Predict the 3D structure of the following.
Amino acid sequence: MGYVLLAIIVIVVIIVLMLVAMGIRIIRPTHRGLVERLGKYHRFCEPGFHVIVPFIERMFQVDIREVLVEAQPQTIITNDNLNAKVDAQVYLKVKATEEDVKASQYNVTNYENQIVNLARTTLRNIIGTLTLKSANSERGRINEELRTTLKTETASWGIEILRTELKEIDPPQDVQETMNKVVKAENEKIAAVDFATATETQADGARRAEIKKAEGIRQAKILAAEGEAQAIKLVNEAAEQYFVGNAQVLRKLETVEKAFWQNAKIVVPADAQLVNVIGDLAGVVPVPERSAARK
């Protein structure tokens, strides 16, 4: 009898331990827990060690980390009747408070899928009022308007819309080719203008260099002429100061010396004296002739 009772006690202990083991729950810091008892919300669980009653209580763990939701590509007709392929991304997370975690599970079914559909609808409404060119140039405004709309529509879902990103707005292939040609033509035009400007600048620089060079030559000639004039002036002043009365005599002597040096011929009249001829050439007073009586 004692052995039977001991066996029953052991079995009961084992069953209790198994039930306790089945009820152990560990919540990571990245999650929050919601415990339901018999189908009703019972309590909120923070990160750490928790025990629930098996078969009576259930715990649902909710991820509160940032999540990226892809809004699948779709074709949207723009205001200028072009079909644009649009794709977007939504970054969101569940708020960590008890009420927000409960709202993310009880106020909406599969909030990620709901966000995708809501983002696609909102993009159609926004881009449908814009031309293709303005849609590409106003991505920031589209992102902000999309985020504001999603934030307003999901206010009761317990989630936070962190940011939205418009990934791509692709026009039809023929429109894309035309746009590429326009961009290429604009780039070539800009390159041609830049080349013309550079050539003009280079020519202007060469012209300025030639002008500077001509001005330098002109200035050098002016300085040389002024130097020669100054030298002549100094020579004249020296001659007037130191050779007064003797300048003509010196000039005539230089003439005679030059004549003899160059082997110049001097014609002497038959009745003239050589000394007087040379003296006359030199500007010296002629030697008086002796009288016939004295001869």
